Amino acid sequence: MKFALVIPDGCADEPQDSLSGKTPLQAADIPAMDAVAAQGAVGRANHVPADLPAGSDVANLSLLGYDPRAYYTGRAPLEAAAQGIQLGPNDCAIRCNLVTVEEQMMRDFTADHITTEEATQLLATLQAELGGAKLEFIPGVSYRNLLVWRGGNTPPPFTADTRATPPHDLTDKSVIDDFPRGPGSDLLNQLMSDSVAIFAAHPVNAARRKQGKLPATNVWLWGQGRTPAVPPFAEVYGKQGAMITAVDLLRGLAALIGWRRIEVPGATGYLDTDYAAKGRAAIAALNETDFICVHVEATDEASHEGNTAAKIKALEEIDRHIVGPLHQALAAQGEYRLMVSPDHPTPLRTKTHSHGAVPFAIAGSGIASDKFRTYDEPSANASQLAFDDGWKLMRYFLGS
Ligand SMILES: [Zn+2]
After folding, report:
1. Which among 72, 74, 96, 339 has most CB atoms closer than 10 A?
2. If you measure from the C-alpha of residue 9 to the centroid of ligand 1, how many angstroms do you get, rounded to a whole number?
3. For residue 92, what are the β-bridge partners?
4. Reduced to 3 DSSP states, what percent helix, strand and coil does the chain have, rounded to the nearest 5?
5. 391 alpha carbon – ligand 1 mean position (Å)
6. Residue 271 pLDDT class (50, 70, 90 cuts)
7. How far is the CA of 224 from the centre of ligand 1 (A)?
8. Are 358 and 343 contacting, i.e. CB atoms less than 8 angstroms apart?
9. Is residue 160 pLDDT above 90, yes or no?
């Protein structure tokens, strides 16, 4: 039996006044997703435990069948895994954003979309001035960089009680009350403060100011954690898997659970992604793997922008170019199960991720048809099929 999961990131939403009280899923023309619902079962699942942050990291870990309470250690270790950075048992990965803070306000959590080349130069200077055997500044893409604490035989100073605020939650807000706190926060705050003087005099920033761009005023450290001890998916569920995504977080999750990662040219992680290329890659992968997962970020990006039309358009593209052809290919090759489900809601109203249940639809071998004919929130909310611990949905989906 072949299994496929399509994740329209953050697509679950609320009824919209601008859509005459419909949600984006209800308003969108999504015949392929509706067919999954009509042929199979619709339900709801909550992938973000109340005491964990409503992030794609927590939610996708759960959607892939892992209890986030047991395995979630932070965002940075997942991104380190995506980059192939090896972490020892006492090492910690920490997100090292380049940001623009002006008059104690988070002016831009991307430092005005600083280029990777500029970021690499800034990180090299940080490494020379502040780095060493214990601290390694590792450039990534644009403003998204990493700091690795190499503990050796010494446990890291950070614990589960260390708190640090994601800079994208602080846009246009005061940062004064949101510096890191708890165990190890002195070190994080010291590094953030040291970076201010280093960056103020840096030629990269001088050149940016000349071009009328915002400077990177300092690093913002957050998302710290050790590598989670996640058992391979094949060990837990007895299936080989592969992931198609344009987002580092999902690449990292795939690496951690022992899945192959399929890179699709034209997959951007944004609204202009090549949906059809992702659909074709998923179908091609069916020959080589038991379980193919296609993650699409565009629905989440549209939500962050508060763009209702773009969210609906993204859903329709996913439906037409991924869910439709993939369902057809699955049915043609023999026994299969197909699930459509986002990770968490990203309401257009708040433009950010939220806790709460999301709708899923499952069709295929051994899945009896229920009374629901459309894939949307009202169907899911009326269904008897509900998973408060969302990570348990995977076992149901696999029929094991
Ligand atoms: Zn997400």
Report:
1. 96
2. 5
3. 149
4. 40, 20, 40
5. 15
6. confident
7. 19
8. yes
9. no
Q: Please tell me the distance between residue 245's alpha carbon and the centre of ligand 1 in angstroms.
A: 12
Give tens-digit pLDDT for 273-319. 899 999 999 999 999 999 999 999 999 999 988 999 999 999 999 99
pLDDT digits (tens, 9 = 90+) for 316-347: 999 999 999 999 999 999 999 999 999 999 99
Q: Using the mean position of ligand 1's atoms as its centre, give its distance from the Cα of residue 343 in Å.
A: 6
Residue 310 to residue 27: CA distance in whole angstroms: 12
Q: How far is the CA of 269 from the centre of ligand 1 (A)?
A: 11
More confident of the two residues 267 and 224: 224
Q: What integer pLDDT is reported at residue 169 of this predicted model?
A: 84
Cα of 353 vs centre of ligand 1, distance in Å, is 7
Q: Which secondary-structure segment (H or E) carries 395?
A: helix 393-398
**Rounded to the nearest whole angstrom, what is the distance from the C-alpha of residue 382 to the centroid of ligand 1?**
24
Amino acid at 37: A
Residue type, 197: A
User: What are the C-alpha distances in Å from 115 to residues 17, 27, 140, 197?
Assistant: 39, 38, 10, 21
Structure tokens belonging to residue 358:
């999301």
* pLDDT at res. 269: 76
Q: How confident is the model at residue 248 (pLDDT cuts 50, 70, 90)?
A: confident
Q: What is the pLDDT of residue 272?
A: 85
Q: What is the side-by-side order of every strand in the sheet holding 260-262?
A: 260-262, 241-244, 291-296, 2-8, 336-340, 358-364, 41-45, 386-387
- Rounded percentage of the chain residues whose pLDDT exceeds 70: 100
> Using an 8 Å Cβ cutoff, are 194 and 253 in contact?
no
Distance from the alpha carbon of residue 114 to the mean position of ligand 1, in angstroms:
23
